[in-house]
Specification:
seven-stranded mixed beta sheet, 50% strand, mainly beta, 123 residues, globular, four-stranded antiparallel beta sheet
Length: 123
Amino acid sequence: QVQLVESGGGSVQAGGSLRLSCAVSGYMYSGNSVGWFRQAPGKEREGVATILIGGNFRTYADSVKGRFTISQDNAKSTVYLQMNSLKPEDTDMYYCAAGSRGPSLLASRYNYWGQGTQVTVSS
């Protein structure tokens, strides 16, 4: 059974940092991909970062390049999103997702989703 569980969200002031974790069960295999997405109420889900499991490929949305870093720990079946220099506009619910159709920032490419973790950045 595939399960994704996010953690690490919270409230932080602008300029601060948070590290999100996505514990992946039953899907952390080479060739699959895990992505981080975010969504505000009434808005479309936006791809933030994605990583190829077991590989070096990763990609980021332009809005987070140079500030966010996605990484993986296969021994712990966990994918991380390190978020630095946070801005108020980063405030959203953050979701991780897993899929087998290659790393992509498109939500439609992912089959499995976690429940999300809230990130709030105050100015």
